[in-house]
Description:
By secondary structure, this protein is of the alpha/beta class. The chain has helices spanning 16-27, 39-53, 69-79, 104-132, 153-172, 192-196, 202-207, 212-224, 234-242, 248-259, and strands spanning 7-11, 31-36, 57-61, 86-89, 135-140, 178-184, 188-189, 210-211, 229-231.
Amino acid sequence: MDSKTQTALITGASGGIGYELAKLFAQDHYDLVLVARSTDKLNQIAVDLQGQFGIRVKAVALDLGAPPAARFLFEQLQRENIVVDVLVNNAGFGGFGEFAGMGEQEILGQIQLNITALTHLTRLFLSSMLERRKGRIMNIASTAAFQPGPLMAVYYATKAYVLSFSEALANEVVGSGVVVCCFCPGATDTGFAKRAGTQNSRLFKKIGAMKAETVARDGYRGLMAGRTLVFSGLQNWLVAESVRFAPRKLVTAVSRWVAEKV
Ligand SMILES: NC(=O)c1ccc[n+]([C@@H]2O[C@H](COP(=O)([O-])OP(=O)(O)OC[C@H]3O[C@@H](n4cnc5c(N)ncnc54)[C@H](OP(=O)(O)O)[C@@H]3O)[C@@H](O)[C@H]2O)c1
């Protein structure tokens, strides 16, 4: 890839927020490395974005739920001399249900994708960014990061990790030329709710979800502005900030109410 053109690597780019982010980078003439499991969708997106924006797009069909995947991806890009200027750790999923009844794969899969793969990719790509004194990392957390989430206990906890990890890392790299941004969307209209089994929750049915396009645009702007913590929508910002002042038991009870099916 052309060394003058910057390259953004986006995980979970076959749909939802990741796809919308890919379009925004493409509009700004970034070359792209797009990662997800769905080969056909990724290849089609690559063809479309290449044709529309005259950029280069590499589609990598990969299951980041498999522990060696992050290193495999890193080494593949190294072999091809692809320098990643922006890493977007977007791939993630949630699962609805009481923890005691949740399958082991569902639990460990969320931890592997939402936490382990994100942390591993960050570690692998951060070193060369620090050497070049340039780079951006965007980790997608959620407003779920700000309170416990009964009925989605593991998912909420993984996002609390992403928030804590990203804010700490952002602090560590201040002055290095590398920016770390934690993006915290609220409910968003993507494939997420169906996969999680939360389409009939109060959150998605009654309170409503934002458009993925709008959410991605807010995240993209925040990342490019060099902000550490970014929200999409005033309501989501308020929810995340307000829980700090309420008793934790109450916050947890409200969180459960929001997650319950109606
Ligand atoms: N939607 C919401 O309400 C919401 C709210 C807050 C935060 N978020 C977060 O935003 C991020 C994006 O979610 P979304 O709403 O855009 O969900 P989505 O529409 O379900 O998209 C998830 C993306 O991740 C990819 N993915 C899933 N499992 C993967 C795996 N094992 N390996 C590689 N890629 C994988 C999916 O592609 P394949 O299926 O092709 O692999 C897809 O491209 C997630 O981290 C999510 O937790 C979402």
